[in-house]
Amino acid sequence: MNSGLRYLICLAVGLLSLLLPGCRSSHEPPKSSQTSTNDEVILGGDAPKRKYIKDKTVEPIRRPLMEPVTGKIVYDESNTARISFPVSGRVTGAIAALGDQIHSGDALAEIDSPELGQAQSAYRDAVADLKLANLDADNLRLDNRFALHSPISGIVTERNINPGMEVRPDLPTPLFVISDLDQLWVQMDIFEKDIGLIHVGTTVLLEMPAYPGEEFKATVRYISKVVDETREL
């Protein structure tokens, strides 16, 4: 190798050694305001991505166990009485009005019943025969009038009786329905697949069209053991 070629090689190596530092410095990644670890990302104050971040308070929300279902409000049967007349007769006198507050033992209506009068007369004759040997006087006044009394306290929620009406024990509807409305039941139909989500003691939130925007809490007290296979929800 002559001296001229050696000079060119040395020059080329020298230039390469001069260019490499320059290339290395021009391709260094720019300093970033973003750092990260395994579970968090920290952005500096001048990071452009900060403008896409919005602060908002996270609040826990209790989601229902199942989709809403329809239901209906019914009487609490343990505090409800359906009252009929045991014999035939005709309504006379005053009648308790729909919505009246009734106490146990209050008269609801008065009924004139010849059938009842005959039964009372037969009873009186039997008592008189029993007491005849002792010559006891019985001043009990008997007639056909019978006062129909309420067995419980509550509100007259249904009334199927009018003045002069003929009543019989086989009427399809009761003459009065008395119920304590301080506590009511809600009957709901749910899908068979959701039965496992409901248990006795579960709290239920109720919404009613009569009270828009309000929620009422109820507690599951009974779950039917029968599935209605013919009813479509």
Biggest beta sheet summary: 4 strands, antiparallel
Give the SSE string: HEEEEEEEHEEEEEEE
Mean pLDDT value:
76
Tally of extended strands? Answer: 14
How many whole angstroms does the radius of gyration measure?
A: 45 Å
Q: Approximately how much beta-strand content do the residues carry?
A: 15-25%
The helical percent reads: 10-25%
Shape: elongated
Taking pLDDT < 50 over at least 5 consecutive residues as the criterion, the unreliable ranges are: 3-26, 136-141
The structure class reads alpha+beta
Give me the side-by-side strand order of the main sheet.
4-11-9-6
Give the termini distance in whole angstroms. Answer: 100 Å
Q: How many helical stretches?
A: 2
Summarize the structure.
The protein is an alpha+beta fold. It is built from two helices and 14 strands, in the order αβββββββαβββββββ. This is Membrane fusion protein, cobalt-zinc-cadmium efflux system.
Written description of the protein model:
The structure is a single chain. The strands form 5 sheets. The protein has a 4-stranded antiparallel β-sheet, with no helix packed on it. With 233 residues, it is an alpha+beta fold. It is elongated, with a radius of gyration of 45 Å. It has 2 helices and 14 strands, in the order H-E-E-E-E-E-E-E-H-E-E-E-E-E-E-E.
